[in-house]
Structure formats: structure tokens, C-alpha cells
Amino acid sequence: MSFYEEVYALVAQIPSGRVCAYSDVAAALGSPRAARQVGFALARLPRARADQVPWHRVINAQGRISGRGDLVRADLQRALLKREGVIFDAHDRCDLSNYRFVDFRSRMN
Asked: What does the pLDDT average to over 5-13?
């Protein structure tokens, strides 16, 4: 399985109303320094698979959406997360202590 497919399989496990950081996904894959590559994989997720892979549930380690210049996608990501009950504060951060999901290991087997 390719790295991208491994990322997609892991992200597909994140439940509604929960988020994880790019670094959480990378660590669960056994590559803790690959957070940026996780972001690249999600940015290249084929639109046809967006219903199967909840890309919007992956945010940065500060609890923020990482738009990186793609403001349309950032707005969509925020709207999807809000619809799932994820609350952002006045600084556009969600409280990772409330919403973070990292229980990948038990779900991968």
C-alpha cells in the first residue's frame, strides 16, 4: 500500500466530531517526522474519495486549520467541522484536549 493510501486508511478512522493533527497521523504510521507528507497526501485526495476519507478532520498541532493559501478549502473544512460539533474559539483554534482523536493503533488491527 502506498503512503498516501495508508494516510487515507488511517484518516478514514477518525470519528465525526473529532480531529487529529497531521503529526498524529504521521506518528500512527510510524513516521513521526512525516506530518508535512500527510498534509500533501490529503491535499491530493481525489474528490471522488472525499466522502470516504474525512480529510477535514485533520488539522495542525495548534488546533487550527492549515489553509496554506487555499482559503476556499479552509472555509469548507471549518464549516464541515462546525457541522460535526467542533467548536473554534475567537482565535480560530479548537481545543485539542476536547476533540483530539489518536486511538489509531487499536483500530488498525
From this structure: 95
